[in-house]
Design goal:
2 domains, 336 residues, mainly beta, Immunoglobulin-like, five-stranded mixed β-sheet
Length: 336
């Protein structure tokens, strides 16, 4: 089901759909009821020049099986370390998190130990070849604000700057923070003088699991916002047998997607692609969200209709407002 992250078995969690009332700024009571129930953030598997690099993953696939994770802090996995296990005999990985408020944060005590305790969970082996190691670490949660952060990961001579969109460096169990006019995300001052050995790792997608829906199906959402926001709605069923009447059809069930902004605005979208994958068990509808945006950072809801049923998921505006997805590269070129 869904696009799989290599080396991870994804276990789905159940999220009940929200009520159909959402207009205007959230009140304190409404903020207490709604939570940002995200699973994980993905990043590129290679550098822009196609050279190999570590693979980063923020969050935790299968939250229902890892309910203790939130108490441990913000999780970052560093996978596919091509230098191999020998790297750790004479080298160490260092990581720091930079917050928009100027705070520089070290990993938790547990995170420091895990950062240089490589493991391999690969099931593949070849004569004379060992699987690439991976490590993980944890950072303490930030303040309950809609602010971006950057994680600096140093490995030998190379530094990787991992971009975390605003709305994620906060404990998901906390009430949703209020809106404020923060505008698009920014780089941090530590990135003012990047060299050829510094690599900016832009976030690619954020994954959400909406759980079980009608007819025994499951529903998930993969959200991106490189310039214009896109939503990939994934329907999953296990009863599919290729060539039988239980196979997905591209036009049935019908689906639609809208964004409900915090100010009450309904932002529409249009479907740009429909395809069936994973042996016929998944149907993916990709929607491009209509351009929308201002300087307000806020919480909205993505509303997904599947036939006559409606499901909603809370998301920060970094995932759907125009130009709110990524910091502007010109900021670095102009020395911040």
């Amino acid at each position: 089901m869904r696009s799989k992250i290599a080396l991870f078995g994804l276990v789905l969690s159940l999220l009940d759909p929200f009520s159909n009332s959402f207009a205007g700024e959230l009140t304190n009571n409404e903020s207490q009821k709604l939570v940002h129930n995200w699973e994980y953030i993905t990043f590129p598997w290679t550098l822009p020049d196609r050279k190999s690099c570590p693979t980063f993953l923020a969050g935790w696939p299968g939250r229902s099986e890892h309910s203790d994770e939130e108490s441990r802090g913000f999780r970052l996995d560093v996978m596919n370390i091509v230098q191999g296990f020998g790297f750790f005999k004479t080298n160490a990985i260092a990581a720091r998190l930079y917050r928009a408020n100027g705070e520089i944060v070290e990993p938790t005590e547990e995170g420091k130990k895990l950062l240089n305790a490589p493991i391999s969970v690969s099931t593949f082996s070849y004569p004379g070849m060992e699987p690439n190691p991976q490590v993980l670490t944890y950072f303490p949660w930030g303040t309950n604000m809609l602010e971006e952060s950057w994680i600096e990961v140093s490995m030998g001579t190379e530094r990787y700057w991992v971009e975390i969109p605003y709305g994620f460096d906060r404990n998901p169990a906390d009430p949703l923070p209020p809106s404020f006019p923060g505008g698009r995300p920014k780089f941090v001052p530590a990135m003012k003088s990047l060299t050829d050995h510094d690599h900016v790792m832009r976030w690619q997608t954020v994954h959400y699991d909406l759980g079980a829906i009608q007819n025994g199906w499951r529903l998930s959402l993969i959200q991106s916002n490189s310039v214009d926001a896109e939503s990939e709605v994934v329907l999953y069923r296990e009863d599919v047998k290729i060539g039988t009447s239980t196979s997905w059809k591209t036009n049935s069930p019908t689906t639609a997607l809208n964004v409900l902004d915090a100010n009450g605005t309904i932002v529409g979208s249009h479907c740009i692609d429909v395809h069936i994958q994973d042996g016929g068990m998944e149907r993916c509808n990709i929607y491009k969200i209509n351009q929308n945006g201002d300087d307000q950072r806020c919480w909205g809801q993505i509303e997904i209709n599947v036939d006559d049923k409606t499901y909603r998921i809370v998301v920060p505006s970094s995932l759907y407002k125009y130009a709110h997805g990524h910091a502007d590269r010109l900021q670095i070129e102009n020395k911040l």
